[in-house]
């Protein structure tokens, strides 16, 4: 079986639209985040080496390295989302005839639910990071491609808000409320200023068009 | 040469990140819109045929047909964006030594700029339409996959805001101000309630998790 990242865009979209449970919103969130990181890289690649932008050359080199590392992380998350979802479905399919079976099934579900909460939380974090990088691209990148920094921030923002939904769903099913609440607190911290941050970066770009 | 839709997600992201001018934010906008439409279809496909949702069966069938048509349109826009950008670059590359050449080059640029304004405007319209469909999915779709309706609205919203930047850039370079202002008025109408609409649909989903 091909990994999702190796499938064509059209096949990915066909599978997203189908009644197969995966790929779903979690993979779509990672793809959006990766598009955001890729567009930050594009702005960097079209700023680096231009005499007019010599003053920000070193900063753009660093930004490019960060964006490329983040893109790799987010590409990995496309698969991570599918893997943990499949694991969770396998747990729900465990037998539940006897009390022993019920107890075993429930313990397995709870074990995998922790991972199913952490995977989208990591995606949300990576998307928030991509938003922060797109602000630098919007502020200092080549004006000729500055709109791509605006697309970057919107893609990363959509990825963040999407991943957040999956954190919320899976945290809600966790019986270990201390763990769940800790993860939800991390999520709230990421989300706190996301709406205003996305709008601010978008307006920085718009003002330069 | 492979069309973008036939390239793998990873190759698409590599090309997006590279210093090649295309694909850029315009194609990314279309891909995000298509992800939104695909996720509306996913919610429909996992609602249709379920006895619990028999009351909305016909509506979900219609919604699915609309989402699939929109997805096709948006997939076509990935290529349309690259094509018109390449055409525009070819115009800018025309010779401009003599006054005649200058006049011819300018006329060609202006001719293609109209298309370069209309292509992202059509993408913005399709994304706004995908947002409207995701509201129906969020309100009436299978609760078990309702988060995918929330991802759908965010993807389509990011596509809309992204496409809008390209309409703004290209309209600004148009000498035919009447045409440009008419297109910008259409864009403003699409954008007017987009922020609040995205937030409302997202909150409908969140309240159901």
TrEMBL record, chains A, B:
Keyword Nucleotide-binding set for record? no
Could you tell me which residue ranges the Cyclodeaminase/cyclohydrolase domain spans?
8-187
Family annotation (InterPro entries):
Cyclodeamin/CycHdrlase, Formintransfe-cycloase-like_sf, MthfCyhylase
| UniProt entry tagged with the keyword Transcription | no
Q: Which UniProt keywords apply?
A: Hydrolase
The molecular function terms in GO held by this entry are: hydrolase activity
Q: Where do the TM regions start and end? A: none
Q: What is this protein called?
A: Methenyltetrahydrofolate cyclohydrolase
Origin species: Methylomonas methanica (strain DSM 25384 / MC09)
């Amino acid at each position: 079986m091909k990994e999702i990242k190796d499938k064509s865009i059209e096949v990915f979209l066909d599978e997203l639209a189908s009644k197969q449970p995966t790929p779903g919103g979690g993979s779509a969130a990672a793809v959006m985040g990766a598009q955001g990181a890729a567009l930050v890289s594009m702005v960097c690649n079209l700023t680096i080496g231009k005499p007019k932008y010599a003053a920000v050359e070193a900063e753009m080199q660093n930004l490019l390295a960060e964006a490329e590392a983040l893109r790799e992380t987010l590409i990995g998350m496309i698969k991570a989302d599918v893997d943990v979802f499949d694991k969770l479905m396998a747990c729900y399919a465990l037998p539940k005839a006897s009390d022993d079976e019920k107890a075993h099934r429930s313990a397995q579900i709870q074990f995998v639910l922790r991972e199913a909460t952490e995977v989208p939380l990591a995606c949300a974090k990576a998307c928030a990071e991509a938003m922060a990088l797109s602000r630098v691209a919007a502020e200092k990148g080549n004006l000729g491609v500055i709109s791509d920094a605006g697309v970057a921030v919107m893609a990363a923002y959509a990825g963040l808000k999407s991943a957040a939904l999956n954190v919320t769903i899976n945290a809600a099913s966790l019986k270990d409320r201390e763990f769940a609440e800790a993860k939800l607190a991390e999520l709230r911290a990421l989300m706190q200023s996301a709406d205003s941050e996305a709008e601010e970066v978008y307006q920085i770009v718009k003002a330069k068009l």
